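Sequence only, no structure available. Ideas?
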Amino acid sequence: MSLPSGIIFVTRLEGFSPVERTRFNRKFLGYTDRSQNGKYSYSRSGFMSDIPHVHLSNSIFIILEKDLDRVKDFCETFGVDLFVRKVILTASDLEVLR
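Reply:
I predicted one. Tokens follow.
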């Protein structure tokens, strides 16, 4: 039996201004929008909202191999560097990614 594999990737925003980092992160991950001094909040979805993933840390994610091209294309439009490696998925990773 072969073990399922996935992709771990790291986004690198070195050289980006704080405004550019925030802009990318909001489009990539989404954010919570608040109005009326926090009385109302709205969840704004991002690119990764449509892709099953495990968010390990600030810029570290695990996804399925089939989704890698979409992530690469999105990051290329913003000039974001990606570091990509293939990994063997655990049972808990598979539950989240399915």
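The first strand starts at residue 5 and ends at 12.
Hope that gets you unstuck.
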